[in-house]
């Protein structure tokens, strides 16, 4: 069976404000992992890694300081960052913040 013989993936829809889990809420099952991150002002996610992932983070509201390896990046509302999940990652909210994360499997 070729890719063109595969049935199309059904369209799924979610509303971020309907998600109750904090700080991480998974929007959809399966790949790519799509997560709503909600952090209160001053809240930090401990340093961790996603070695098999490439990550895109979009700050929907608020302000995060992203520690990525030895560097820090300020990401404000509307900002988008793409990074390698194999490095040390630790976001810290500088204000109440909501962000959308997409974690895609590495293809290399």
UniProtKB/TrEMBL annotation:
Domain of life: Archaea
TM segment ranges: none
Limits of the Cupin type-2 domain: 38-86
Alphabetical list of Pfam families matching this protein: Cupin_2
Protein name: Cupin domain-containing protein
């Amino acid at each position: 069976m070729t890719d063109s013989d595969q049935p199309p993936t059904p369209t799924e829809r979610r509303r971020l404000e309907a998600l109750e889990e904090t700080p991480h809420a998974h929007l959809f099952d399966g790949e790519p992992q799509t997560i709503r991150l909600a952090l209160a002002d001053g809240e930090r996610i401990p340093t961790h890694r996603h070695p098999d992932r490439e990550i895109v983070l979009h700050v929907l509201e608020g302000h995060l300081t992203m520690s990525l390896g030895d560097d820090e990046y300020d990401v404000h509302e509307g900002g988008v960052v793409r990074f390698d999940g194999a490095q040390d990652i630790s976001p810290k909210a500088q204000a109440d913040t909501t962000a959308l994360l997409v974690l895609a499997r590495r293809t290399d």
